Every structure is written in structure tokens, then in C-alpha cells.
Amino acid sequence: AQKVTQAQTEISVVEKEDVTLDCVYETRDTTYYLFWYKQPPSGELVFLIRRNSFDEQNEISGRYSWNFQKSTSSFNFTITASQVVDSAVYFCALSEAQGGSSNTGKLIFGQGTTLQVKP
Amino acid sequence: DAGVIQSPRHEVTEMGQEVTLRCKPISGHDYLFWYRQTMMRGLELLIYFNNNVPIDDSGMPEDRFSAKMPNASFSTLKIQPSEPRDSAVYFCASSLAARNTGELFFGEGSRLTVL
Lengths: 119, 115
Known about the structure:
The complex is a heterodimer. By secondary structure, chain A is mainly beta. Chain A is 0% helix and 51% strand. Chain A is globular, with a radius of gyration of 14 Å. By secondary structure, chain B is mostly beta strands. Chain B has no helices and 11 strands. At the A-B interface, strand 11 of A face strand 5, strand 9 and strand 10 of B.
């Protein structure tokens, strides 16, 4: 069965601190995709990143970085030098490829981690 | 380009009333998803369509919920009769399989309160 676990319910940091959000997933498929979405206080869901199961390269985008490790089934997200605007709920999600390599976008979400960055 | 458009943004109704939520996906997208978000259960997939055809409705809570997609540019999620436990934010999302990214584009959500 597919499952995504975000063990951290809430994290509070002070501005400029680094923070890592954990994500552990379960799947029986060899081809799958992992995502992070951000939900700011306004409520919309914003796509941050996608990773496929064949690409374990870590990725950095500005202050954001992602660490994908298949050996531990983890896809952790680090924010460097956090800012107040980073305060949001962050969701990790899993999508399994269907029909071979086709990816429909059917996502299974973790419960989310609420990040509060204090000034 | 316009994103996914949902209406209404907020709905307050009384138990027993019929509720209809509407969604216009991004033009050209061939998948449409309805998700529900609650504090207790997080983000749950209710149903999704491919080319207007329902593919998986296993997440629909019960017979009170129904969803339709009469054409590529419109979908509805109906609750009849509504109950207080249906109070949640309902998100519609669309995607384009051909891009093979699995990225969902979400609407801003419809916040439903059933009194």
C-alpha cells in the first residue's frame, strides 16, 4: 500500500535558522514520483518540486534543497536561512506511475508539517 | 493562462441541504481530481477523471457524494443531503498526463461549512 508519513506535525524556528522537514514513504512500485507542496495561510496548494524514483540526485533551488534517499525511503526538504514568509504547511506526496511510465498525478499526501518561522 | 477555477469559495449551509461545488480545470488538461482537506484526515483524494470519465471513485465517502464531468471544461461535486461532518475545504486539481510530470495544479478551494 502507498503511504506517506510526515512525522513532524509542527516545527517552530526563528528566522535565519535552517530547518529540515522529514518525509518517509512506502510503495511497492519501482516507478514512482515524489512531490512537495506548500500551503501558505491563504490556503492554496503550491507545487515546489517533483522527483522520480530513478533520479536520486539531490536538488537545490535557492534556499530550498531536497534530499532523496531510496535506501531509507525518504525525501526530506531543507530550508536554509528560513524567513517569515516560509511559514506554511508543507506536504510531501507520492504518485505511482500507472500504465507503465505514465504519471496521472494521482497523489497520496502526507499529513503535512506546519512550519512557523518567527521573526 | 487561467488556473483551476473553483466556485463557490465559501459556502455555509444547513444540514440536509444540497451542496454543489464547481470546477473549471486548466484548458487542455486531461485529468481532474477532487480532494477534500480536513484537520482530522488531511488531504484525501475523493475521485478523479480522465478525459471526462471517472477512473477511481473509491475515495468518495458515501452515496451522498456524487461527481460529474459533463465536458472537458467543467466538473461538479455534489453532496445531498449534507451533514456537519462534510465541513471541509474541497480542492479541485487538474493535470496533463502528456507532460508526464504528475504535477497537479490546484484551485483555491471551496470552504464548506455545514451547520
